[in-house]
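Let's sit down with a protein and look at its sequence and fold side by side. Once you have written the record down, we can walk along the chain together.
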Amino acid sequence: MTGSNTLRLAVGGLGAIGLAVARAVDAGKVPGFTLTAVSARDQEKAKATLASFRTPPALTTLSGLADAADVIVESLPSALFADIAEPALAKGRVFMPLSVGALLKHMHLVDLAKKSGGRIVVPTGALLGLDAVRATAEGKIESVRMITRKPPAGLKGAPLLVEKNISVDNLKEPLRIFEGSAREAILGFPANVNVAVALSLAGIGPDATRIEIWADPGVTRNTHTIKVVSDSSDLTMTIENIPSLENPRTGKITALSVLAALRRMTAPLVVGS
């Protein structure tokens, strides 16, 4: 701690989301937090960016973030997930992953967190209603289905599309490019459907949670519709996220969700389960 009520924050990755979070905390927009460290693949670009910060944080390695902070936010390609998660949780830190789909390959981290006293806190991200899904999971959920529609440009380059040689260029009508479980979806679309994994972890798991993915030239926003059938409530929820200009695969709301999750950690009043 840097003060009796201040938490040290580190951010892994200075892409669209990580940079937005880092700037907001540096500007003092999240009470109870100070930005102490960041990590980035392009060191020179990061140094130039951080020079404009009010209080420039230390620039360190992914594993070094755990030594510099109490809370570590991960905003990286999923291939680097373990490099930041393992050290953070081994030291008992709060680890906030955005590449939550990668967590399915590293579920031993939950046991590591139990042993070290760390915590894995998954922000809501570009989704909605996770509090309601968690509540229904206290009873019995019969089914969970999510239908995702994205502008084709936001899906280009996804591993499954490359593997199956599926083109989303010049589409004239919506094309369903995937239907299956959340676990299968994240393998084929690791940068696109982390929200599906978050939904599955809040509800009935990645194998029982079903997802459809559509490349839709008729939409300009990343759209997710969730349908839950349970013994307490039947839920139908739709969110239309405005894509980030820097990265059309993610929505502007994702960085705001991280800030909201951080604010919740120090707020004297918390609304929502």
